[in-house]
C-alpha cells in the first residue's frame, strides 16, 4: 500500500500547470504526480549510487555501494535510461 503525501503552500500557477499537463496526457493529477515523483526518486537513487562509486569510503570491500538496493543490471539500465528521458 502506498503512502499519502501532502504539499503545502504550492503556488497556484504551479498547480494549474501540473493539472493541465496531466489532463493533456489523459491521466489524473495524482497519477501524473505519482509517475513524476517516482521518476525523480529513481534518478536520485542513480545519482547516489554514482556518488558512492566515485567515493571509495561509500563502497564496501566488494565494491558495492553502501545501501545498494539490489536492482539487477537490466533494472539499473532501465532506471538510467528513464532518467535520461530515453
Q: How many E strands?
A: 0
Largest sheet: none
Fraction in helix: 55-70%
Mean residue pLDDT: 80
- Category from helices, strands and their pairing: mainly alpha
> Termini distance?
29 Å
The total domain count is 1
Outline, from the CA principal axes?
Answer: elongated
Beta fraction = under 5%
Regions with little confidence, pLDDT below 50 for 5+ residues: none
The radius of gyration is 17 Å
Concise summary:
Helices cover 59% and strands 0% of the residues. It has 86 residues and is mainly α.
Q: What does this 3D model show about the protein?
A:
It contains three helices and no strands. It is mainly α and 86 residues long. It has one domain (12-84). The longest helix has 26 residues, at 29-54. The protein is elongated and about 50 Å long. The two termini are 29 Å apart.
Amino acid at each position: 500500500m502506498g503512502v499519502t503525501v501532502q504539499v503545502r503552500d504550492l503556488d497556484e500557477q504551479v498547480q494549474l500547470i501540473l493539472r493541465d499537463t496531466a489532463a493533456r496526457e489523459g491521466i489524473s493529477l495524482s497519477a501524473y504526480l505519482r509517475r513524476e515523483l517516482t521518476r525523480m526518486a529513481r534518478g536520485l537513487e542513480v545519482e547516489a549510487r554514482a556518488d558512492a562509486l566515485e567515493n571509495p569510503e561509500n563502497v564496501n570491500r566488494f565494491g558495492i555501494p553502501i545501501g545498494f538496493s539490489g536492482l539487477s543490471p537490466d533494472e539499473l539500465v532501465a532506471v538510467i535510461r528513464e532518467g535520461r528521458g530515453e
